[in-house]
Amino acid sequence: MPKGKVLVVDDEEVVRLSCQRLLEPEGYEVFQAGSPSEAIQVVEENRIDVVVSDLKMPEMDGVELLKHIKEVSPLTEIIIMTGYATVASAVEAMKYGAFDYIEKPFRAEELKLIVQKALEHKKLREENLRLREAISGGY
User: Fold this and answer.
1) pLDDT of res. 91
2) Are 3 and 27 in contact, with CB atoms under 8 Å apart?
């Protein structure tokens, strides 16, 4: 059984494949999407735990994608990656619910650690939600 489901969204296939090659040996089931619309479809059809998305894409940017994903899957954690890092773009991504922000090129260990932390955070949020429901159901 996989540790979790990770979706990698980038218009560059080489980036998607690199992320997949890094994450699959760690025990993750990795999905790929070459566009934001494809990513939304994958999220709607699968219980994705973590999305790793590029910020700059032709169809829509990573922050817009983040907003769409949070609407359909609020507990999914989203990591934004970009080669054009600015403080403003990082702040905007975090404001709309990104778990973290990573600059390209990134180190393999850096990506693995951020994905692991995002998955742990998602599991804690799910457990918290279950406990709240159990408590409110008991009273």
Assistant:
1) 84
2) yes
Q: Model confidence over 52-67: pLDDT tens digits? A: 999 999 888 889 999 9
Task: Give the separation between CA 27 and CA 8, rounded to whole angstroms.
Answer: 15
Domain ranges of the chain: 5-137
Q: Which residue from 62, 74, 7 is spatially nearest to 36, judged by alpha carbons? A: 62
In angstroms, the Cα distances linking 117 to 38, 58, 62, 78, 124 are 25, 29, 20, 11, 11
SS3 per-residue string spanning 34-95: CCHHHHHHHHHHCCCCEEEEECCCCCCCHHHHHHHHHHHCCCCEEEEEECCCCHHHHHHHHH
Element (H, E) at 124: helix 108-137
Residues pairing with 50 in the sheet = 6, 77
The yes/no answer on whether domain 5-137 falls in CATH 3.40.50.2300 is: yes
- CA trace torsion 10, 27, 104, 68 (10° rounding): 40
Coil, strand or helix: which one is 128?
helix
* C-alpha angle 92-97-103 in degrees, rounded to nearest 5: 60
